[in-house]
Amino acid sequence: MTELLQWARHHWHRLINGRAQDEDERPYNYSSLLACGGKSSQSPKLAGKHRVVVPHLQCFKDEYERFSGTYVNNRIRTTKYTLLNFVPRNLFEQFHRAANLYFLFLVVLNWVPLVEAFQKEITMMPLVVVLTIIAIKDGLEDYRKYKIDKQINNLITKVYSRKEKKYIDCCWKNVTVGDFIRLSCNEIIPADMVLLFSTDPDGICHIETSGLDGESNLKQRQVVRGYAEQDSEVDPEKFFSRIECESPNNDLSRFRGFLEHSNKERVGLSKENLLLRGCTIRNTEAVVGIVVYAGHETKAMLNNSGPRYKRSKLERRANTDVLWCVLLLVVMCLTGALGHGIWLSKYENMLFFNIPEPDGRVISPVLTGFYVFWTMVILLQVLIPISLYVSIEIVKLGQIYFIQSDVDFYDEKMDSTIQCRALNITEDLGQIQYLFSDKTGTLTENKMVFRRCSVAGFDYCHEENAKRLESYQEAVSEEEGCTDTLSGSLSNMAKPRAHGCKTVHSGPLGKLSIRLSGSTPAIGHEEGPGEVPHSRQAAFSSPIETDVVPDTRLLDKFSQITPQLFTPLDGTAQNPPLETLYIMDFFIALAICNTVVVSAPNQPRQKIGLSSLSGMPIKSLEEIKNIFQKLSVRRSSSPSLASGKDPTSGTPCAFVSRISFFSRTKLSPPIEDESSQMGGSPLASNSACCTETEAQNSEVGLTTGSAEALNGPLPLASNLCYEAESPDEAALVYAARAYHCTLQSRTPEQVMVDFAALGSLTFQLLHILPFDSVRKRMSVVVRHPISKQVVVYTKGADSVIMELLAAASPDGTNLEKQQMIIREKTQSHLDEYAKRGLRTLCIAKKVMSDTEYAEWLRGHFLAEASIDNREELLVESAMRLENKLTLLGATGIEDRLQEGVPESIEAFHKAGIKVWMLTGDKQETAVNIAYACKLLEPEDKLFILNTQSKGACEMLMGAILKDLQKRTQASPKQASPGKAFLRPPDPQCCRRAGLVITGKTLEFALQESLQKQFLELTAWCQAVVCCRATPLQKSEVVKLIRNHLHVMTLAIGDGANDVSMIQVADIGIGVSGQEGMQAVMASDFAISQFRHLSKLLLVHGHWCYTRLSNMILYFFYKNVAYVNLLFWYQFFCGFSGTSMTDYWVLIFFNLLFTSVPPIVYGVLEKDLSAETLLQLPELYRSGQQSEAYLPLTFWITLLDAFYQSLVCFFVPYFTYHGSDIDIFAFGNPLNTAALFIILLHLVIESKSLTWIHMLVIVASIFSYFFFALAFGALCVTCNPPSNPYWIMQEHMLDPVFYLVCLLTTCIALLPRFVYRVLQGSMFPSPILRAKCIDRLAPEERAEALKKWKGTAKVNQVTSECASQSAAKSGRPTPGSSAVLAMKSATACTVEQENLPICETVLDHGYSEPGASKMTESSAH
Questions:
Q1: pLDDT tens digits for 855-881?
Q2: Using a CB cutoff of 8 Å and minimum separation of 24, what contacts does 1-6 make?
Q3: How far is CA 527 from CA 497, 499, 521, 532, in A?
């Protein structure tokens, strides 16, 4: 349809204007206006599944109209409605709700004369009011979007005019695909465009992508290959190429296509060449690009889905109960129809009751009963609460307001508070049973601190650095980052632009960040000559991360790397020690194998030429020695390189340091996704790093020396700012800098490193292979500045790197033997790092010949230029390069736990929430963190599932289950997966079980044949740790638990790899940490710290669920109680459908007089204080078990409503029995008594009455009497023949009226009041007991809470002793938990760090390495 509209518009435009139209005029595209709700319309498929983009120029006029001219323009429209379609479309959407359709049916039905019960206008009132309120809300929200869209569409940018042959000001909405756009520093990019020119001499452009992914650190984009070498700005009139790329999609991390020149030569395009809408140009004077996606087809708009709407569990339950009310209504109407038919049959011959038709025909009782059925439907329509859904929406908005206003959620460091992105699932927060959490950045701070490293088989524990971290406390002042520390930390900078960068555009965005996905312009100003511009503080640059104290032993060895080491002064040739070469390559890899952007804003950019060494074809080590021999003479008269100063210009190794910088691609942290568990080595242990012997040193020819030459930081180092895209690579760069291997600058062609005594080394950057989740590593290909060889430096997960090492055998050459020793020692060190909870990473290298590299590059260019299967081809190309590597060493990085994480997880356990940790880290690291955050306790029995085959996985799970079931003291039925979470809070069981499963084994366990067994096993475990899990496995685990166990799940994460897990769970929580905003944008709620989750669930979740449950039940109660008054009256009026109440009072009773108090109750009710809920997490279990809204509770509420309606009807009936009171005079005390009963019922149910509650209740009563008095005084002939004239006035002068209202109210509410009193005194629930504690004075309250917790511990110990005694005597203990009470059936074989490693013997006789291991953690 869209293609047809575009075709018709295009040809109509040409027909009207002819060929002589203004050459600069663009065909306007209305398809964007037809798109509703911000959804993009589909592009014409003229180029198949690809998009062809041709320039908007005269020479391409025909081709432009055929391709680019048919795509949508840059106008955005996120509104749903227009002035013309607002009423019909809003009504259409509202009538998608079944309740509204039901009441519409009643309105239409009431217009049928035969079944008319009310006046036609009165029946329409409830529906009109509800529809109007929702329409006003939707209209105001849409108008706000319209104003924002209008401001964005009218922003100004520079677009090339083919008529005026220059760039002119143009509104964003008029930009089209194929336009050339020129942007200046600090301007926001109006559309997705391919970068063709940058004023930067290296052809790069700095952008800030906080509008898309929340990352404030700068990214760099590269001019298309072949255009970077231009000396002048690209001339659109001389651009004769065309672009073919993929169709619009929402993948921010991918762009595939190619640029085809007029000679048919193709140049590959990637995301590094694409500038995305919503990003901001930084530190670049000007750029030029051609638009490829515009408007709703840009990646930013395709990712802009707005707030998420889900249907909560409670709302689904309420919908079911509405159906029960419908069934009840049908029964009552059938009763009325049947009763009327029977009543008429008794008086069939009495014309007074059976009036014939005008033609003399008498209607049969059966047909009359049928008519009465529909009359009763209209009369009793209030039984279905039409205002319930509106009230629920209002209450949820109020709850969200109070959640977002909670100051405890404010994080001062992040300057952020909680975000509620899903508007209608707040009550689900109080019913969570399973919590799935990521580790890095969620449980930990994501502040990577360099702790240890292993180089050439030697472990360096960095004890001084460890002591610094132990005593370190970050300052809370704003200037903490500007303080220079011991190792020369970077100074933090505050202005986001480079020297001389002018603010050309800072449009009036204001709060437009919503539509621009969070991007805001930087409002700059001209800088004075004396000012030194600075950049804002870089990410991952807090002092705790940057201030690395070098290890003295490694520093001593590092100081031996001097030119004299390679060629002594006497000229004798010798081979440098192997360890020294490894150390040199190790730190070079740390410094350059990354995508770190280096900023030095007080230095102008300057393109660096290659040094004089670059022209010398050095191929052998002998020639390297000769070069150093020549240099040693010159250096003797130059300033000492070891002093850290810049060498003089005459020194061949002196390089200019004022350059621009480049980072090819975003690097995700490779360590988190996978870290390998490798076989142990009999060498290095805990004390290996400090007690290595001289004999070990001699294995690799260690030479001793001093580090005096390296004293003092480099002067330029403190002026550099590192913009890292992941905390891991930032930690490694800072570690290299601590050893004076300082990354000085980066350009697309070269990387410069200041390497201590060797001076500045410039590496020609040949290629970057970015990190991806398939390869789990990244590589840089460089030409070494000394040897001129092509060297590949690789870093990645240890499990991957170890498999890519060159083959070595003990029987091989000397070098191969040394490689074997290094590999074994490094393996041992990696295992030790993992046990200490460090994140491990391996560093390796490979030397290639020019021929090998050229051959690989040809194949790689073909892969880069492809559109189809591009990712697969690039992975295959990378695999051909990254093999036969030489292991250099490994690193251990510490990621500290966030504040409050152990306390939060402990509270979740007490609350009955099962916590699973899903991480990509290796097993030892994950288990260590699990113990540190109290996910696992020392006394837990820990089982490890680590198998290599499906059969072994099935056998091991069976053996574990058999052991658990045999040793537990409860029946297996209690531990069934579906009921595992229903365990009562008391008594606690004696032992807990934990499960650790690796990614490979998880792949088997998630297969359909093993799912049931896996679920049964996890039901016995209090905590589960899934390590080395992929993002897809994370989401599959959450989906499995949610769908098969039918439990409420919550997933929390902070990175892009957690998005799928967050979206699958019932509630998704995003942590706005240091890894961007991808998780936040996909979440329902966003927090800044994991500890905030405890209050969100235990306090606000409990409140929201309790409030809304009671409010919904109250709505059902008050509707049933009031409607039944009409039903009971039918027994005394022949079931004729007559009402004893005026229709206006009947309608307003539920719509006005009794609607506000329950809304206030739903927003403000607090059964317990926040402090009590946090100190007693076990109270959360009431929400998990839906105690506030069980099916039984619903039916008891209806029975109570029936009882109260009987009292409310028959007390006035017997009071006025035999009197001459008329119909409306009888109905008035019924209405008044019902009002008092319904409102005081709410008072009884309220746990905390505030002045607002009382004010609303008094206002409701006052409004009722005011309306009744005014209506009775003014309505003389409103409803003939009976009228409410002066009825209320007469009753208010009658004492009997007051007595009837008082007596009726007391009798009706007495059972509920007595029940609540007995419940609170005789059999109080934990909630009521806690409520009593809540009312005590602070000192008494603290003592009572202490006793409560002490009683729980005593019950736990008693249960444990009883279980143990029963186990010894062979008798089962009633009430003991099936999941946690267990005895160890394993024999301890090895003990390390008080954690015994146990082996379980499989009766099946099957044995496989890793398949039969379980660990039991015992407290000693």
A1: 888 888 888 777 777 778 888 888 888
A2: 2/31, 2/34, 2/41, 2/42, 3/42, 3/44, 3/45, 5/30, 5/31, 5/34, 6/31, 6/44, 6/70
A3: 11, 9, 18, 8
Which residue among 200, 202, 438, 1142 is the active-site one?
438
Could you give the strand order of the β-sheet that contains 419-420, starting from the edge strand earlier in sequence? 419-420, 1085-1087, 1067-1071, 1049-1053, 434-437, 914-918, 1023-1027, 993-998, 941-945, 1413-1416, 1395-1399, 1387-1392
- Sign of the alpha-carbon dihedral angle for 845, 847, 850, 854: negative
Residues 380, 377: Cα–Cα separation, whole Å: 5
Output Rg (C-alpha) for the chain, integer angstroms. Answer: 38
Tens-place pLDDT, residues 111-164: 887 777 767 777 787 788 888 988 898 888 888 888 888 998 999 999 998 888
- Cα 673 to Cα 1029: distance, rounded to the nearest angstrom: 7
pLDDT of 1256 over the 80 cut = yes
pLDDT over 90, % of the chain: 23
Instruction: Concatenate the DSSP letters of all residues of 903-970 into one string.
Output: HHHHHHHHTT-EEEEE-SS-HHHHHHHHHHTTSS-TTSEEEEE--SSHHHHHHHHHHHHHHHHHH-SS
Euclidean distance between CA atoms 109 and 116, whole angstroms: 7
Own/partner pairs for 691-694, CB < 8 Å, 24+ apart?
692/458, 692/459
Beta-strand pair 1413-1416/941-945? antiparallel
Contact call for residues 563 and 758 (beta carbons, < 8 A): yes
CA distance 814 to 778: 30
pLDDT exceeds cutoff 80 at 727: no
More confident of the two residues 761 and 720: 761
The continuous run of DSSP H or E covering 842 comes out as strand 839-848
Q: What is the DSSP string of 640-706?
A: PGGGTPPPPTTSTT-----------S----HHHH--------SS--TTHHHH--HHHHHTTT-----
| CA neighbor of 602 nearest in space, from 499, 529, 528, 524 | 499
The rounded distance, in Å, linking the Cα atoms of 488 and 16 is: 70
What distance in Å separates the CA atoms of residue 933 and residue 936, rounded to the nearest whole number? 8
Is residue 761 within a helix (H) or strand (E), and if so which, with residue range?
strand 759-769
Closest CA to 1133 of 109, 383, 108, 117: 117
Residue 1086: closest CA among 1094, 1098, 1077 = 1077
Element (H, E) at 855: helix 850-864
Helices (H) and strands (E) in the chain, counts: 46, 36
Name the phi and psi angles at 935, rounded to 5: -65, -40
Q: Helices (DSSP H) in 1248-1325: which residue ranges?
A: 1251-1274, 1287-1291, 1295-1321
Contacts of 801 (CB under 8 A, 6+ apart): 676, 777, 794, 795, 842, 844, 885, 887
Nearest to 1378 by CA among 1394, 1400, 1363, 1358: 1363
Kindly report, residue by residue over 752-779, the tens digit of the pLDDT: 898 877 888 889 988 888 877 677 888 9
Give the span between the Cα atoms of 1284 and 1223, in whole angstroms.
9
Q: Which amino acid is at 1066?
A: D
Copy the structure tokens of residue 915: 């916590």
- Strand, coil or helix: 124: helix
The verdict on whether 24 is a catalytic residue reads no
pLDDT value at 37 more than 60: no
Q: At what angle do helices 386-404 and 120-153 cross, to 10 degrees?
A: 40
Q: Which of 898-912, 1139-1153, 1295-1309, 1393-1407 has the highest mean pLDDT?
A: 1295-1309
Residues in a beta bridge with 1305 = none
Identify the band that residue 64 occupies on the pLDDT scale cut at 50, 70 and 90: low
SS3 annotation, 368-420: HHHHHHHHHHHHCHHHCCHHHHHHHHHHHHHHHHHHHCCHHHCECCCCECCEE
